[in-house]
Structures are given as C-alpha cells and as structure tokens.
Write a structure and sequence with these properties.
By secondary structure, the protein is an alpha+beta fold. About 30% of the residues lie in helices and about 10% in strands. It has two domains: about 80 residues, Alpha-Beta Plaits (2-Layer Sandwich); about 80 residues, Alpha-Beta Plaits (2-Layer Sandwich). About 30% of the residues are buried.
C-alpha cells in the first residue's frame, strides 16, 4: 500500500507541475582528471602512430604542424579539404604507411593557401582540434626553397619572368644583384603560391624529378 501511495503521489505531482527533475551532477574532480589523462593518452597515441606509420616529412594544413597532436586527433573526415576554397589540401596516399593514408596534406600543384583572409576555413571545419590556431605572420606551413637545378633564373638562358615574386603576397621573394631568386625566411610562411605558379615543370623538367624551380618544404627552423 505504501508503495502504491508513493507512486500515486508522484504521479499527481507531475500532473500538477509541482515535481522537479533532479539536476545532473557537474563534472567531478575525477572526471576532469580522467579527461586530462585521456587527452594526454591521445597525444601519446598520435606520436606512437606517427612512428609506426612511417611518418616522413609532410606539409599539413595550417595548424597541423604539431605532428603528435595532429596524428592523435585527425580522424580523416576530409572536412578540411572540402572547406579549402583554393583546392590546396589533398589527401595522403600509402607513401608514409597504411596508417597515414587519407591524412590531409598540402598540394601546391593544385592550389595554394591564401589564409582565407584570416578565416582559416580548414581550421574552422576541423571537428577534433587536429588543426589549431595559426598566425601567418609567425607560424609556417613550410618554407619555400629554391631548387637551383630546376629554377630557370639559375639556368643558362635565365628567361623566366619570375611569376613567383608577383604571386607572393608576403613579400618573401626577390631577386639578388645577379638576377637570381632568393627567399626571405622570416617573411615566408609556406603558403605555396610561388610553387603553384612556377612554370619550371612545364618548360624544362627533363629529368622527371617532379620538382619545380621553387618548392615548399617542411620547416624545421
């Protein structure tokens, strides 16, 4: 009888709007510690995965330059690539190992990074935090490196009109007193515009090196 009375009483309170649902407990200290431990574990897993997957130098989208964090957080959802307005983001094949397949990489043969005028659509689209905040005046996707064996300005004819200089919005490229291309490493952020417009591979890449006169490489500075 008492159980039935309690049930009836509770039902009447709900009908009258007098009952209040119990509040969900907030995050406990144990939950916070557990969450921090899980985050640390993901980062450690990212480092181990990178090593196991045969990680070699790769140009990642803006904010993905911390390899351990990137490998631990990226879920290969492809949202960063889809969000890039200039098609500068591609996907990795099997070169670094099967674990690295489908990770996003920069592809400056297809496009370049204009930093989205500071909006960074790729970072905004990332759901896991694999791509973190990026300052184009401080951080670097990579570094432009002149290949003297491929750059037409270093050749015998030296006929290139250096479209890479005009394409660089960061004033990182110039010609020295001999008319040779030089890179200002302090200004270059690896946007890839120079590599994208370089005509070398179209005109005189006889050795099939797949390199251009200027190429963006991973920056270790």
């Amino acid at each position: 009888m008492k159980t039935r009375e309690k049930t009836n009483s509770a039902a009447s309170l709900q009908e009258d709007g007098g009952a209040t649902r119990p509040q969900k407990p907030g995050l406990s200290r144990r939950s916070l510690i557990g969450g921090a431990a899980m985050a640390a574990g993901l980062l450690a897993f990212g480092g181990a995965t990178a090593a196991f997957g045969g990680e070699t130098d790769r140009l990642r989208p803006p904010g993905g330059q911390d390899a351990d964090r990137f490998w631990g957080a990226c879920i290969r959802c492809d949202r960063c690539r889809a969000a890039c307005p200039l098609a500068a983001i591609g996907v990795e094949g099997l070169t670094p190992g099967i674990i690295g397949a489908r990770l996003p990489i920069m592809d400056f043969r297809e496009g370049y990074c204009d930093m989205c005028d500071g909006a960074f659509r790729c970072i905004a689209a990332c759901p896991t935090g694999a791509l973190t905040a990026f300052d184009p005046y401080v951080d670097k996707i990579g570094m432009a490196v002149v290949d003297e064996a491929e750059c037409q300005l270093y050749g015998i004819s030296g006929t290139c009109n250096a479209p890479c200089i005009d394409a660089c919005e960061w004033d990182a490229l110039s010609l020295d007193e001999n008319g040779r291309l030089v890179v200002d490493e302090k200004r270059c952020n690896g946007c890839g515009a120079c590599e994208y417009v370089c005509p070398t591979s179209a005109y005189r890449n006889y050795d099939a090196s797949n390199k251009r006169g200027i190429n963006v490489e991973v920056w270790h500075g």
